[in-house]
Amino acid sequence: MGTTAPRLDVLAPLSGWLVPLDSVPDPVFAGKMVGDGISLDPTSGSLLAPVSGVVSNLHSSHHALTITTAEGVEVMVHIGIDTVMLKGEGFFPLVEQGQQVAVGQPVIDFDLDLVGRKAASLLTQIIVTNGETVARMSLADGMVDAGKSVVLSLQLANGKVVLPTETAEPQLSADIAIGNPAGLHARPAAVFASKAKTFSSDIQLLLGDKEANAKSVVAIMGLATKLGDLVRVRAAGGDASAAIAELTQLLNDRCGEKADEAPIAPAAAPVFAQQQDSDSQLAGVGASPGIAIGRIVHHRLQEFDVPEHGKGANVEQQAFSRAAEEASAQLDLVKAQLTDPAKQAILSMHQELLQDPDLLAQTYTGLADGKSAAWSWRAAFSAYSARLEAQDNALLRERANDIRDVGRRVLALLAGVKQAALELPAGSILIAEDLAPSDTAALDPSKVMGFCTRTGGATSHVAILARSLGIPAICGISQTALKLPEGLQVILNGNEGTLAIAPTADDIAAAERDIARLAERRAAEAESSMRPAATRDGARIDVVANIRNAADAREAVAKGAEGVGLLRSEFLFDNRDTAPTEAEQAAEYCAVAEALGKERPLVVRTLDVGGDKPLSYLPLPKEDNPFLGLRGIRVSLERPDLLRTQLRAILQAAPLTQLHIMFPMVASLEELRAAKAVLAEEQAALGVSGVKVGIMVEVPSAAVLAARFAPEVDFFSIGTNDLTQYVLAMDRGHPQLAKQADALHPGVLAMIALTCEGARAHGKWVGVCGGLASDERAAPLLVGMGVTELSVSTPAVASVKATLARWSMDECRELAREVLALSTVTDVRHHLNQLAR
Is 475 a catalytic site residue? Predict the structure, then answer.
């Protein structure tokens, strides 16, 4: 005898008239992308709990909440359309996330008049976000009373899906503290999930009473981990022990994320974000600095009309697989046109999402229910992006845009619609509801003066890309911006996050003067960037570039770099399962050398991993303090096979350029001599001579003993980032200490001066390849201390050259004497700012 599936009645959270969900003026809700349910046009202003359960999510803007019932049904209530833009104004939460509530209990009060005036609509959505828990849904209609009328009657799914499990008992790791400053956001989550996929075991990541599929980027991000959170890894299967060991180590190594690579969440309420809209100005969040004048061009996302029902699970699954493969190939083409590794990494993360097991599982569930591939995929990625947007973590909310971007790419292929390219006229100020990161990466800065999006924030991938392109941008702009007339002249201020929509002639003239001043300076710097770098009185200083590959080298030369002072060879070793072969490495080093030619120097740093830069195929022992353990040259000497292979590959570039080889993290003469001995053997075997050898000065012992190292090297290159943290005993990624870990600290400057003094005594040159070299204020100071090579980021080449040309050598030396006599970093910075030219 069968059992009757349980029922759940959802009561009206507000009084008012019921409206079909598909008539709501919002494609996300109308298309049932978040889930199925009903909408309500309210006449009351106190939201009541529609079901009993736990408040599993309360949006930070207090306009929406989700209650999870005892049966596992997630019921979301979203007050109004676009009410997130009110940023909490007019909403007064009466409960907290995690609180148990009873049906009919008041949970949010809101100002009906204020929200009605400022929001696009008061229509309130009551939605079941996890539709797999419901077998059938009956909808009410007409007028309803809050806390009394049933609006949704749910027949719950009878039984749960049981996944096959291994016979072995699950194994559990010890507590692991999250060391990533921003938690497991997109990049570290992708690294962790990618590693987890290499194991056959079922693996979960646990945070308190929450758990996530460890092979799913989306699920891991959904945990909303923070710095210091304690997590555990649970695994069941034949390789469970190995999975736990390696994934634990990966978490301890911050999933390969360097401290300075972690995005910083925007302040909760920056001053300019509190500016109010007016008749002449709209306010948002400054996402990329700069001022732009232009005319509005609207970019609206294409709508895709997709059938709900499919042609059979097998046919639809094949269609989906083809579309996912083609989407990945499209992303490869976009990546191939980019030279910025940061942009390429964002698109690589999009490709990872195409293989996300949780997204695929939800898609295949839809296919099994007879839905079309397009319908199933849209439901999957829309639900996940909506869940991320509901998180308290700003970084995770902004990653929802990435999911929608890659989701729409596949959806367009399934729908047979060619996505329109962003072909914009010169002088455009682009206005969009949402701008895909892949579209942003392809923007032409010569035509797009700036852009505004209604969604996103300062840490979104769209904002990151805008900054890399040098395009002023505003995110979180008012809904009003979407209704501005096409072609309207506006002034976009990315510094303050404002869009002047009714600029006067005086406003435009003032903005033009500001833009002209900056443009003049940049143009003058660019015009002189191809001249040899020198002080005003003709003392030559080499201004070279830090790069990763041949494309970087070509760009650097085009921007005036006089060579390469740091080729980070580890780029060849990253994001792969095995070490690169000698042939693979040689091809890359030779490509860089050919880009430079024989007249320019190339400094190649040997593999610098360990500490904050782990490799999955190079297991290192767990260390209590990896920054003081196996790093740099120590790893190479532990693995001489890797070192010899790399040195042979580097030496093949010797006939093509002025080759220099540099060993990282050298702390003793014994390490230097051991590395040089290996190099000498490989040089003899290949018959290569004339290669210069140097070391990175990153630890205090190398600076203190510079005079003793100097006779045994051809040059020094100071890595100010690591030198700073070792001199000051401050982890530069520490959330509380990072601001104090300043390379202009008198102690760090003393170490740089000591290095220059030791080198000078033996006629050897000193370069700086750390972040301080790219600071134009510090350039004359470093030169005054005796530095004769500055290896900078490519965008800084022109400005550093221009700065040096404004100083004489005697003035640089006098500046160094003055600064080295100062006692605090505050005094140093004040002194340099006063003298900035």
Answer: no
